[in-house]
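Hi team,

As requested, here is the filled-out complex form for the copper (II) ion run. I kept the field names the same as last time so the parser does not choke. Let me know if anything looks off before we queue the next batch.

— J.
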Amino acid sequence: MASDAQLRRENRVVIAHVYTSTAAIALGAVFGVFQGFARTSVFGAPAWFDYYRILTLHGVLMALVFTTFFITGLSLFVTYRSIPRARSLTMGWFGWWLMVAGTAMAAVTILMGDATVLYTFYAPLKASPWFYVGATLLILGTWVVAFEIFENVAYFRRNNPGAVLPLVVFGAAATFLMWLIATLGVVAEMGLLIPWAFGWTKGIDVMLTRMFFWYFGHPLVYFWIMGAYLIWYNIIPTRYGGNTFSDALTRLTFIMLLLLSTPVGIHHEFMEPGISSGWKMLHTLTTYGVAIPSFITAFAIFASFELAALARGKRGFIATVASLPWNDPVFSGAGLGMILFIIGGFGGLVNASYSMDTLVHNTIWIVGHFHVTVGGPVALSFLGAAYWMIPRLTGRALWKPEWALFQTRLWFFGMLIMSFSMHFAGLLGAPRRTAEVGYMGAAAAQAWQPLMLLAAAGGFFLFASIITFAIVAIGTLVQNEKTEPMDAVFATPADAAAPTPGFLQHLYRWGAVAIVLAVLAYVGPLGELLRHPGYLAPGMRTW
Amino acid sequence: MHVHKYERWWMLFGTCMLVVFLTIIGVAAFLDNINPPSGMQRIDPTRVAQTPPFDSPGLHKRADGTYEAYYVAQVFSFTPATLTVPAGSRVTFYVTSSDVVHGFFIPNTAINMMAIPGWVNEQTHTFDRPGEYLLLCHEYCGIGHQNMFAKIEVR
Ligand code: HEM
Ligand SMILES: [Cu+2]
Ligand SMILES: [Cu+2]
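And here is what came back:
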């Protein structure tokens, strides 16, 4: 066992990561609510309000900062707690400092108006070079965290020959292995963007940067999902006295997500020239492959619910659902998130479809979709998990758990309202990433105006919810004394006695397979782009 | 590895759904020819105005009675700003950008594509219903992005 002093030193690293994350979501929510109102015809954007600068900040803070810092914090936490040892925390801190430095650098350029390029920074929009450098540092910081986790895996294997890596650490390591492979794409893109932004190179191949970006952009989404699955499989069952349904199938799920995350990115480029429809079709096929780990997860979660209910003599669907601890904020976050994920799954089927995407591409439907996935299941599970982690990190009981519960419910309803109205407005044709969607009173634009108002109202509930979160989190620190034990227990698999098949333990071999799949999926489209040297754009600043 | 009997059924169900979805998409693609826009033609964005057919943007009638419409997207407008199309006509839109990335989207039609500098993208739609259509840019392109739209009249 690690000593108490050691535990506290480890906790401080994790706290740094997790609190940076929650600060990002709180700040991002303030911007989000402004965006919602700005898009309505009733309120509109005040003259001083630079919609696109704020939207860049919102996208970066939410999609890149909030999620990433939470997953690094959570993964370090589960690794440290599952593999107790005397350890140096240099890597954990170094990773955090790099990530913070990168975030700060990017945030300053955005705030100064030198990087109003949105979080996708599509060339030939040309931001300050420091924006790209900052984003690169953020990624490099996560690599340091990844190596910290891999080092602990190696330590465990060295010192426990023949033992199986704990499930939760396996999940965290698979998540970061996937992340390492995926971020190679964006780092390669930065290798083009940075010299170009400094003026060392004259031009940039626009389609090449887009392909690199989306090679990374889709796995980014699975990174979030894998973070949520870590919580769903390993923490949530402990809230209702249950077990993880199956050790082997959980490992299989993480391996499949590792394999299927990269060879799919072109589904974000269906509407683009320069990529033949054959490659688009290939990436449609691989995208739908995610149905398998999703079905396994849906089954595993319900089976785990049911086994726990049966153990308490409850039978049937309604009795099972009713027996779950819906009044526990930790469970409520994940449980309500799962409900939102079902809606998100249906929407995803449309987006990923080669032909139906025409209906929704770049409309506000897409914004509705990712808010009901990353803003729903992922963000709610993370906030719920924060309620679980904060006492275990600080030794202080959660202040006002009933407010925490209210927070998760308010977020759920706010998200339902906002995302439903965004989905429908998108079907009517309302575009995303647009400051005003009135189009001088054009008839088509009239149809979606009421829905924009409804979306803004939903956004307001979300904003109120995050304020509640901040009150509970800060209240815990200033009001409550250190009284709680700080130990963390992860769920044990129901089939813990059965041996884990060897092929589900070779994480790095699966990593090699993932790289092969990524190469196979991209050699064709990349070769097609590079066969004839394309136009090299000098870049411009249009804001 | 033990897999529960119900789970096998459930996975079988999942796999069947997958096959159904992919078959529908495949049938739409290969039999009905419903494919996303994938223009493979390149163009020099600095010389769009001199490059035929973009030197005369607008509607052109083909010999077979269908139409071609050539559009140039630039910050923050489309050329042409208005287009009149006879009702019932089948129009193939060709679009390119002379600066940054733009979107080319006509709500309530099948037209939705990206305009990328250096490339010509294309997509076809039959305008059955007369009326006024909104053509808008749905990719962020700069400070005036929300003002980037045009009109298409179908008469
Ligand atoms: C208070 C809660 C939130 C509100 C009110 C809100 C509202 C909005 C609105 C109105 C937009 C932009 C619409 C447009 O395209 O013009 C937007 C974009 C976005 N939001 Fe949120 N949001 C919230 C929370 C979140 C969360 C939790 C996440 C992710 C974890 C998130 C991620 C994003 C992303 C990635 C974009 C896209 C930015 C872009 O298109 O460049 N949001 N949000
Ligand atoms: Cu994707
Ligand atoms: Cu635009």
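Two things worth flagging: Chain B has two domains: 1-35, 41-154. Residues 1-35 of chain B form one domain.

Thanks,
J.
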